[in-house]
């Protein structure tokens, strides 16, 4: 819908009305066309202002309409009508002008933005490109290099940067609509020839061909198989080398290749999945809309190792007062310096002052007595964490929330060492904690709905995407990682190499394959967990028991490397070798290949050819299968929770939607059939035995992913 009002005697104000973001739904497009017709035809109207209701200009095309038959007036002619009209049109940009919303503004003759507004063309994040003239008008307005960067990254710019780029004509701190009306009054009757962007020549970057070759190379490399960024470069190429009309035709052709693509569906699923996880629920019935969070103004972080430092920075950047505690004086000094550096760099990136004053440091726990919430981030050891929780229970206020950053230890066991177990939840951050968007909020059977709600809201305040998950070993992310890693080890035993496995996973879209990732995070991390689980037998022999644990297949390959001090990048060698300890560039290691051959010989294993398809099936389907078990156990409420965790925390390629969504693109019956195939070949590997929920979904005709939450609720009693 759109509203028309006449103000100051001669300015027609067209207001978009579609809360919460005034998306350009069919109804809104109808409204704009009708109100513009009215404004352009009524003689007393000399100029027009377009604005959005509720202090938001427009969030772009209505993404909810994409999967359906699109009706209503198309955007391109609607915007062309505004641009070619005889009366000046001013866009009053408050809050947001994104995607089709910015394209609408680019069709106007003038743009005024409020100083807090954000502008951008984020279509690439939805697997699309700006298809309402954005790829043709923006480069004509701000130049090809700047337009290319904004459109291929989809990043938002502040009003200040938009002014610097020439994207807007004015920025105001006051009432934007009033300022726009004032401008509209001042330009009424003036010629618009120089204000119609589509008539502008597109400035050519020097060495046009070279420029676009380089751009395409860089975009292909960072896209890792995503189609939309590549199409964006092609559309901008057309803008730089063809007349506007032909460029628009090219933009349409490219959009047609993207709009119905699997990648676009995956990325739009992921857009809504990130919003769905905020509507959390637990098997015990606690829910996001019935659990009232308690405000957290002052927090404490106990343990200032790598994670503790990142969490401290994220809290301070979110505006909280933080007490940062580290009992080792030397570590406290180093942490203080590191935190200051991180604050400074973060502040520079965001154009704000560093929040040094928000943090106070202490070498003992006493100063945490008055905080609202504590996040414990000490070394991953149950005994150490138990003593910290007991001390905190003595020192803290009775209603202080006690949270732990453990990446897999039993939350409820820790809660039993707290005075008020109901105030204990896990807040599992991902390294680097001040950068990674994901937060697993882990509730135990005794965690109160208010504790979960408070941690979820605090995560959002720290600009994280919080996902509520149940308590079990490894929670969701690390629990699914176990069968994924296990299969990778087994494939090495059967003849694969780390290079082959990693290449398959990286071509699938992961930033790093499983073995390069292990070298980065440190092989000793997994080794410690396997030791704690009683799986490691030092100096494993060559007999059959060496490759079996509790009756199931086990590969000691990772343990054997750790026993040789090969922890990965930090020691200069792991699955790959590096120039020096801490080196980042992985190189094939002849020693490792020799070691694998000897290992196979020692265990009577015959190497065979392993192809990329098998790598994907064994590693990804085992991970997905564990995802179904997690849904069956109620540890995650829905597939969106798992997919958001894997994309934001474990590098699953976003343009594949996440593990559970990906299973639907392959086809659940295909995933089931392949798991059965591999389980027949490896009956001693429970990770390959298809989960009952998967069988049930296939038996029910593989219902669409968005219906699984209800399906699981209904069938939980039978599972
Ligand atoms: C032709 C043209 O070239 C092409 C093809 C396009 O234009 S493609 C479209 C391009 N536009 C975008 O990519 C912008 C996407 N939106 C955002 O980035 C953010 O939403 C936001 C605008 C910065 C607000 O953030 P927020 O944190 O304040 O609230 P929220 O929770 O995110 O959103 C609040 C509610 O609004 C819903 N919503 C937001 N944007 C929407 C949109 N464009 N269409 C439909 N619904 C939308 C969202 O699902 C949520 O719903 P619910 O969960 O409550 O039911």
From TrEMBL:
Residue ranges annotated for the 3-hydroxyacyl-CoA dehydrogenase NAD binding domain, each copy included: 298-471
Keyword Hydrolase in record: no
The keyword Lipid metabolism belongs to this UniProt entry's keyword annotation: yes
InterPro entries recorded: 3-OHacyl-CoA_DH_CS (IPR006180), 3-OHacyl-CoA_DH_NAD-bd (IPR006176), 3HC_DH_C (IPR006108), 6-PGluconate_DH-like_C_sf (IPR008927), ClpP/crotonase-like_dom_sf (IPR029045), Enoyl-CoA_hyd/isom_CS (IPR018376), Enoyl-CoA_hydra/iso (IPR001753), NAD(P)-bd_dom_sf (IPR036291)
GO terms of biological process kind: fatty acid beta-oxidation
Cell compartments where the protein resides: Peroxisome
The organism's place on the tree of life at top rank: Eukaryota
E.C. numbers: 1.1.1.35, 4.2.1.17, 5.3.3.8
Family under the similarity heading: In the N-terminal section; belongs to the enoyl-CoA hydratase/isomerase family. Belongs to the enoyl-CoA hydratase/isomerase family.
Name this polypeptide is given: Peroxisomal bifunctional enzyme
Organism: Menidia menidia (Atlantic silverside)
């Amino acid at each position: 819908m759109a509203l028309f009002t006449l103000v100051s005697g001669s300015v027609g104000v067209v207001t978009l009305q579609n809360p919460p973001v005034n998306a350009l739904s069919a109804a809104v497009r109808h409204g704009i066309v009708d109100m513009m017709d009215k404004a352009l035809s009524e003689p007393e109207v000399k100029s027009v202002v377009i604005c959005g209701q509720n202090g938001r200009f427009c969030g772009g095309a209505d993404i909810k309409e994409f999967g359906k038959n699109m009706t209503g007036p198309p955007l391109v002619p609607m915007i062309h009508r505004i641009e070619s009209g005889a009366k000046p049109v001013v866009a009053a940009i408050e809050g947001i002008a994104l995607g089709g919303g910015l394209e609408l503004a680019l069709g106007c003759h003038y743009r005024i933005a409020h100083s807090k507004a954000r502008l951008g063309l984020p279509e690439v994040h939805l697997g699309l490109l700006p298809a309402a003239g954005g790829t043709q008008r923006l480069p004509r307005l701000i130049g090809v290099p700047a337009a290319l960067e904004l459109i291929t990254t989809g990043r938002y710019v502040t009003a200040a940067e938009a002014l610097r780029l020439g994207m807007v004509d004015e920025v105001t701190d006051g009432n934007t609509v009033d300022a726009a009306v004032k401008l509209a009054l001042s330009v009424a009757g003036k010629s618009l020839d120089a204000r119609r962007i589509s008539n502008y020549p597109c400035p050519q970057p020097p060495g046009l061909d070279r420029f676009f070759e380089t751009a395409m190379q860089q975009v292909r490399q960072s896209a890792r198989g995503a189609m939309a960024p590549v199409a964006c470069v092609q559309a901008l190429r057309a803008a730089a080398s063809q007349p506007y009309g032909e460029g628009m035709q090219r933009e349409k052709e490219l959009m047609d290749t993207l709009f119905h693509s699997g990648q676009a569906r995956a990325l739009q699923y992921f857009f809504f999945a990130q919003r769905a996880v905020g509507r959390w629920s637990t098997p015990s019935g606690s829910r996001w809309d019935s659990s009232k969070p308690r405000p957290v103004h002052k927090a404490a972080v106990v343990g200032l190792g790598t994670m503790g430092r990142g969490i401290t920075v994220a809290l301070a950047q979110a505006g909280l007062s933080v007490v940062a505690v580290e009992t080792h004086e030397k570590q406290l000094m180093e942490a203080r310096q590191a935190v200051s550096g991180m604050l400074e760099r973060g502040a520079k990136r965001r154009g704000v002052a560093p929040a040094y004053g928000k943090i106070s440091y202490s070498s003992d726990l006493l100063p945490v007595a008055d905080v609202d919430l504590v996040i414990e981030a000490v070394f991953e050891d149950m005994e150490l964490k138990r003593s910290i929780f007991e001390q905190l229970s003595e020192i803290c206020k009775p209603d202080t929330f006690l949270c732990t950053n453990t990446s897999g230890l039993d939350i409820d066991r820790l809660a039993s060492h707290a005075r008020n177990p109901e105030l204990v939840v896990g807040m599992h951050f991902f390294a680097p904690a001040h950068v990674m968007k994901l937060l697993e909020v882990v509730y135990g059977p005794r965690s109160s709905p208010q504790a979960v709600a408070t941690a979820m809201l605090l995560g959002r305040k720290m600009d994280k995407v919080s996902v509520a998950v149940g308590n079990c070993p490894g929670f969701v992310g690390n629990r699914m990682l176990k069968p994924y890693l296990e299969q990778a080890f087994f494939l090495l035993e059967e003849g694969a190499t780390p290079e082959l496995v990693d290449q398959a996973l990286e071509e699938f879209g992961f930033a790093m394959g499983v073995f390069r990732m292990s070298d980065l995070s440190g092989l000793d991390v997994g080794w410690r967990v396997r030791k704690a689980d009683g799986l490691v037998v030092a100096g494993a022999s060559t007999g059959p028991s060496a490759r079996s644990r509790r009756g199931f297949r086990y590969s000691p390959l990772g343990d054997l490397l750790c026993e040789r001090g090969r922890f990965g990048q930090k020691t200069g060698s792991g699955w790959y070798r590096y120039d020096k300890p801490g080196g980042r560039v992985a190189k094939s290691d002849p020693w490792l290949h020799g070691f694998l051959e000897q290992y196979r010989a020692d265990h009577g294993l015959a190497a065979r050819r392993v192809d990329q398809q098998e790598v994907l099936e064994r590693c990804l389907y085992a991970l997905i299968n564990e995802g179904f078990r997690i849904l069956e156990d109620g540890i995650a409420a829905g597939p969106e929770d798992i997919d958001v965790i894997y994309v934001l925390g474990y590098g699953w390629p976003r343009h594949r939607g996440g593990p559970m969504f990906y299973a639907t693109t392959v086809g659940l019956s295909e995933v089931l059939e392949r798991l059965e195939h591999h389980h027949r070949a490896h009956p001693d590997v429970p990770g390959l035995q298809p989960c009952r929920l998967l069988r049930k979904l296939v038996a029910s005709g593989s219902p669409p992913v968005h219906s699984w939450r209800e399906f699981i609720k209904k069938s939980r009693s039978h599972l």
